[in-house]
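User: Hey, my collaborator sent me this sequence without any context and asked if I could get a structure. I don't really work with proteins. Can you help?
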Amino acid sequence: MTGIEKQVTSLDLAKQLKEAGYKQEGLWWWVEHGSDRRYTVIREGYFQKTDHPHIVAPTVAELGEKLPGRIKVVSYSGRENSFLHCRKWIDCKKKVNYNVEYSGAISYAIQPSVQDYTEANARAKMWLYLKKEGLLET
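Assistant: No problem. I've predicted the 3D structure and written it out in structure-token form, which is a compact way to encode the shape of the chain:
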């Protein structure tokens, strides 16, 4: 994995984001090229979108702007309008270092948490989870 590839989502997650309706705009793109049809990360403006299949490769920062600071959930006790707040941290003791979760001061029916080897992938996984569960505000 090269420098920029550590800062953007993997090709597989970029494809999942696109399928889930993630807006196809950003600074970096997975672009297919060559006879072997492999994808590489290329900066916006350095390829012709009409000539090459491409998928946005969201950066850590771009995904951070798309994730809500908090999500509204129902507590175990059935309390409406409870909120969980987003937390991100690095766990240096594990191979899967990057964690993104939504947590609160009391127990909730949902406390989503995801992990991955890169922060961009962890954030992409959380966006996909929130989208699937209907927790993203549109």
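In plain terms: The radius of gyration is 17 Å. You can pass these tokens on to your collaborator as they are.
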